[in-house]
Amino acid sequence: MHRTIWCWLSSTKFLFCLLLAPLAAYAQVERVASNPHELASAIASSGPVDTIVMTNGTWTDVVISFYAQGVEGDSITLRAETPGQVILNGNSRLKIGGSYLKVDGLWFDQGALRSGHLIEFRRSSSRLTTHSRLTNCTITNYNPPSYLTEYKWISIYGEHNRVDHCHFAGKSHDGATLVVWLRDPPNDSPVWHRIDNNYFGHRPELGKNGGETIRIGTSSRSMQDAYVTVEHNLFEECDGEIEIISNKSGNNIFRHNTFLRSSGTLTLRHGNEASVYGNYFLGEGKSGSGGVRIIGERHKVYNNYFQDLRGTGYRSALAVVNGVQNSPLNRYFQVKDAVVAFNTFVDVEETFVIGAGKSSEQSLAPDGLQVANNLVVTRNGPIIEYEDAPLNITYASNVFFGAESGIGQVDGILIADPSLILDQDVWRLSSTSVAVGAATAIDFVTHDIDGQERDGLPDIGADEISLSPVVYRPLTSQDVGPSYLSLVLHS
């Protein structure tokens, strides 16, 4: 906001100044709609800072075309009269088209589409949405009669959009729950979306590809950088397919999420230079529960905590996949220069599977892999399994205990009891642990999984012993999603 200062010199030579705040550039108007006709009229009449209110009740077979133009700092809001009490069903759907728009408090429940997208951030294929937000919304059990009917629940197009504090659960049909779509050349710059503080709930096994919870990009656009951030989300019982998250673009960040009893992995399927840090993978003994699967170049996987996972092979806690010679975009690029560091693994079925998927086609072993400062305590061995011998691998300052390493005596791996203690369901270092102050410093790892700063002599594993306040913890359903739904589910 700009302000004007008027100054003048009085006859007695005192300087007087008057600060003039400008009048509001836009007059805020609230428009209330109780039926589809009134809603369309309210949207058509809206301008920056306006609010459109949908009255409480059930809205059936409503196609909401929220096409409007807000401005920076003065968005246009479409909201429920009372969050969570506007229920949309039948074949209702929502299109968010424009800039600086916000949708708040709607609940899509027990409806179904024949195809397409339940919620999409675009007006048309050439008119994409920017700087807009879906928040405090819920989608539950919006499924067609046949599980083979394909449509997405949320499709994010455009750039600088956000999906936050929402609840998505019960998707049982074909199609990813949420997809980020990249733009076609020549307008293929990064999209900078943010997906945060959401609950992604029960998704049963689909039995085929297309059961991802989140997909970012496509094979054909996988060499583009997206710069999407996925953070502070809870994934609970997301069993649709092996790829809970399917990363198919470059320079994305996955941080401070919790994966709970989910049969699958965070899969770096295509694209390069992803950062995966500060996440909890808690299997609770569930079959097929896994961690991170690495494919591509220059990925960083650090400060993560893996416990009670039962996945093997591609679904192991940390799978580093073999590549394909001259790989087409939709196959497997060789892993190059990945860093796997400062992670903690407790009682997982298979810890490291390196060269996973080796075959006559997948013949390129990982090259330049750095495995440093990882802490492993497990009864299940071997801790490291080479399905193919990696090239130029380095080990530094790792501590293993409870099972054989699988690769004999190697510099950079110490077999010793790290003396862990249980603290609120998470195993942490005791002050007398051999891992305290024993890590090799890595310049980009400045904090631990709790958000506490690492000192000049960092500790091995995801956790740094510190007296600083804990910033991040494993998430529960009460930490994420809409506040109104948390009250309903936990009352």
Outline the structure in words.
This protein is mainly β and 491 residues long. The chain has a single domain (48-489), classed as Single-stranded right-handed beta-helix, Pectin lyase-like (Pectate Lyase C-like, 3 Solenoid), CATH 2.160.20.10. It has a 14-stranded parallel beta sheet with strand order 3-4-7-10-15-18-21-24-27-30-33-36-39-42, covered by helices on one side. A 14-stranded parallel beta sheet has the order 5-8-11-16-19-22-25-28-31-34-37-40-43-44, with no helix packed on it. Strands 6-9-12-17-20-23-26-29-32-35-38-41 form a 12-stranded parallel beta sheet. Strand 45 (420-423) and strand 46 (426-429) form a beta hairpin. It starts with a strand and ends with a helix. The relative contact order is 0.07.
Average pLDDT taken over every residue? 94
Percent helix range = under 10%
CATH class: Mainly Beta
The CATH topology name reads: Pectate Lyase C-like
Strand content: 35-45%
- Tell me about the largest β-sheet: 14 strands, parallel
CATH superfamily: Single-stranded right-handed beta-helix, Pectin lyase-like
User: Judging by the overall fold, what is the CATH architecture?
Assistant: 3 Solenoid
Give the termini separation.
Answer: 43 Å
Question: Mind telling me the C-alpha Rg?
Answer: 25 Å
